[in-house]
Amino acid sequence: MLKIVAVSISHALTGGAGHISVTVRDLVAKTLISLMNPHISLEHCLCMSKMGPGHTLSQFMAYLGLAKFLEWHVYAVDASDIAIQAMEIVRENELSDKVVVLHGRIEDVIIEEKVDVIISEWMGYMLLYESMLGSVIFARDKWLKPGGVILPSHASLYMAPITNSQRYQDSVFFWRDVYGIKMSSMMPLAKQCAFMEPSVETISGENVLTWPTVVSQVDCYTIQAQELETITAAFKFTSMLQAPLHGFAFWFDVEFNGPVRQKSKKQANPSLDGNTQNASPSSKKKKPDVSIVLSTAPEDAPTHWQQTLLYLFEPIELKKDQNIEGSVTISQSQQHARFLNICLKYFTGDQWYVKESVMR
């Protein structure tokens, strides 16, 4: 009997982000199908995420199991009141013998069996903002069987320097002449309002000045909660263009893989080992050990995660081949665990700069 334990499916699978709904659902389905072979036995699965109706993927998996495999047993766990509606929908579709809806936090519910699969759309903006990865770790340690599957299984957070003159025009330089009225005195305040905190928006590959560097890599099978408290990464970029440096962009990829990988994903960073001319921003999606990847990179199709931009108050004019080096530290806020403190220290043009921000 194939049983699935589903723990809450987020807003990315239902509601306003329809294109994400299909994408995440299909990636999960493709991965599970690829894992369903005579050498792998899956009997239970646990799906988790941040918020929203849990019944969408749960029902989908129940129908999928009914049509293609044996019996799938789904637990849909959600802390919000939408769980009550999910219960009614399950009964309405006569799936009560396959789908059990539990109303509560994953840390509080009781599931009296181990699971083979954990599925969670846990990712937040900049991968870790309001992330539920800690809850995935809790569920993994409490319920996942040895050799079980976690989807998504791996994640990588990237950053790169960017140029975005239009953003400065719209937010700052606009005040130089507002319908014939000079309001330049507003520009310092406009910079503070527009660029004090990280901004979630969509940019294109044309905004990116160099190849990205890897800030953090997450293996959901092995990562521990304390590793998420503070992440620090060094970087060295070489600008490929002569353009103003307006800030730094962050984005992420997630992969859908089983627990055994052909080789380690840890690889030398092109921007750190000097091989920038031979690197490709899409090469990370073509490694032979990666089966399915969902990317939020600027050059890929837009998602509701977009990119996270940390803008500078004052642009820096870069020359072609000019270096930018430094470090970035991302830490959980002591006041609110799901907020992020970001400290960016970088050196370019014989000068050090520091940018500190809080993603609230």
From TrEMBL:
Polar residues compositional bias, start-end: 267-279
Q: Name one GO biological process term.
A: methylation
Residue ranges spanning the membrane: these are none
SUPFAM superfamilies on file: S-adenosyl-L-methionine-dependent methyltransferases
Name the Pfam families on file: PRMT_C
- The reply to whether DNA damage figures as a keyword in the UniProt entry is no
Q: Where is this region: Disordered?
A: 263-290
- Annotated Gene Ontology MF terms? methyltransferase activity
Keywords on record: Methyltransferase, S-adenosyl-L-methionine, Transferase
The Protein arginine N-methyltransferase domain extends over 154-258, 289-349
Identify the PANTHER family for this entry. Answer: PROTEIN ARGININE N-METHYLTRANSFERASE (PTHR11006), PROTEIN ARGININE N-METHYLTRANSFERASE 6 (PTHR11006:SF73)
Designated name of the protein: Protein arginine N-methyltransferase domain-containing protein
- Species for this entry: Urochloa decumbens
